Amino acid sequence: MISGFLDIVFTGNLKLTKMVLKQILQTNGWGVTVFHDLALTALSGKDVENSEIKKINVKKKSLIGQVTPLHLCCLNPSIEV
To answer: What pTM value is reported for the model?
Structure first.
């Protein structure tokens, strides 16, 4: 599951990506941070504004497949995010 996370993200399947990301965060994280989750699940721009996101947080790559929060943000259907 972990090795194919990048493939899952690149398929564009939002529901599957959310499910796998949730499982990864429940285990040891594999370099995935709360910013990865926020980029994928934020419903409005206010959700993002309330967190202290810096440039480095958006570009941080996880240990699994080099996925950044920016990759996940592209899957988020909310255009405000």
So the answer is: 0.74
How far apart are the C-alpha atoms of 29 and 48, rounded to whole Å? 21
Domain ranges of the chain: 5-75
Retrieve residue 56's tokens. Answer: 């480095």
pLDDT of residue 67 exceeding 80 = yes
Which amino acid is present at 29? G
Q: How many other C-beta atoms can be found within 10 angstroms of the C-beta atom of residue 36?
A: 25
Looking at residue 42, what DSSP letter applies?
-
pLDDT in tens, 3-33: 688 888 888 899 999 999 888 888 877 778 8
What the block records as the tokens of 25 is 């965060």
What's the rounded Cα separation, in Å, for the pair 78 and 7?
22
First to last CA, the chain: 27
